[in-house]
Design goal:
- This protein has about 550 residues and is of the alpha+beta class.
- About 45% of the residues lie in helices and about 25% in strands.
- It has three domains: about 120 residues, PAS domain (Beta-Lactamase, 2-Layer Sandwich); about 140 residues, 2-Layer Sandwich (Beta-Lactamase); about 170 residues, Heat Shock Protein 90.
- The radius of gyration is 44 Å and the shape is elongated.
- The longest helix has about 110 residues.
- The relative contact order is 0.05.
- It is built from 13 helices and 21 strands.
- Helix 6 packs antiparallel against helix 7 and helix 10 packs across helix 13.
- Strands 10-9-8-13-12-11 form a six-stranded antiparallel sheet, sandwiched between helices.
Length: about 550
Amino acid sequence: MKVSRPDGHVNEGPDPVEVVYDRITDAVFALDRDWRFTFLNDEAERLLRRSREDLLHKKVWAEFPEAVGSTFQDEYERAIEAQTPVAFEEYYPPLETWFEVRAYPSPSGLSVYFHDITDRVEHRQRLAGREEALRDAYAIVGDRERSASDKIQALLGVVRRTLETDVGMLSRTNLATGRYVIEAAAGNQPRPEPGDELDIAAAPCCRHVAQTGEPMALHHVREQAPALSGGALDLEAYLGVPVRVDEETYGTFNFYSREPRKAPFTEWQDTFASLLADWTGNELEQEKRAQQMRRSNRRLATTTRRLERFARAASHDLKEPARTVASQLQLIEDRFGEALGEEGRELLGFAQQDARHMRDMVRGLLAYARIEARETQRVPVDLESVVDDAWAGVEVPVREDLEVIVGQLPVVGGDPVQLRTLFANLFENAVRYSDQAPRIEIEAEAEGGRWRISVEDEGIGIPQAHHERVLDPFERLEPASEAGGAGLGLAIGQRIVDRHDGELEVASTPGEGSTFSFSLPPAPTEPSSEAELGPERGSLVL
């Protein structure tokens, strides 16, 4: 038997070199300088799907014309011309195979060692494809500029490409009414469009997923589940996942093709679709909450505007009658006081006290309405100036007897008019509810990027059980109610603090006094809350 060896020699009978080449796991063939086959081992025959008899002494480019102009030809020719070994990976379409190739030149030709790496390359490509799909999905989900509907639309495209299906859809199903509404769709035409509505019986696969609440993957619907084939969508491959909102099935995240798949959907594809269906359900749930919140806010805003208009109208309508009543009562006292007698004068005093209370209530309502009606500014405000102005406007019996200790106060970001009202109300509260000349202390400290302000007095104090109640409108606690006032001062203060994104807090002990504290934002021009404090004011007797 005559045998051609890779080194170009020809032997009669079995050749030990041939035996060795047939035993190695790699496929091997040899070419001469004219590119003719001189040797093939068994593995080469198997991978090339050609026999020795069919290829020996024939030119490789004639037998494998698709390799002409490819990496195979370029690398083989480079190896021969440079007399240097080459190694590469390349796909050969006619054989649908990826090869890893090593070629070694010699003066007589070229020895080629190769093996099938299709599984390895496809695995690598699958991993790369999965990584790209996850990266694309995360980019979409994390895009703050996209709306929820845009995100869902884009995700459908990512999953559809990953699953290699014709169409991807988000559908809303209602088993009770039989409605099946397409909310989003991506993929090849023809396909349903968002807003299309079908009878759910025309989408049996989606109906099954909605009924069972479980994912379903069929690579050949007609063979695997004949009862689910047909319908308006005319699908032959299907992967569907239920979308849940508020723990109820909202619809399906589904993907289908009109032709059967060659292979089943993989576990990773099932998981990927399920993961994004869960995200879609969460996004729809958040959007539902946001819509509910927007509706509630609109209703609240409408109610608030109506209440503000009512408060302003009522206050204005009451202001003049209250002033008239007070004036007439004073006129009665001036003209007829002596004739009224002791009991009459006492009754007149009660009436005047009630008139003053009505006046205070009207003023309070007007102040509260003004806060709600006007927009809260955010400008730099020097609290020291605000405190001075607020204290100057407080009505006190004997100002010389009152002591106000003002610590270092910052420049904050806020509404100067509202903040002046806030401090004025706290001062009036301290003066009104004190058995003797009060001592008021004001301090500030940086806290969590804001300024915490505290106003401490030595008044009669507030029982622990009433700390929250005193911040409600028209609340006046006994015996504090005997001191007069409309019960709106602290409520107005609470609303002002709300407008500055803070909360008015009360710490008080009966008989020892009260501390009202709240936080204010730093001035807009300051880089942080560590703004410079003004010079310490010390103890001021005002």
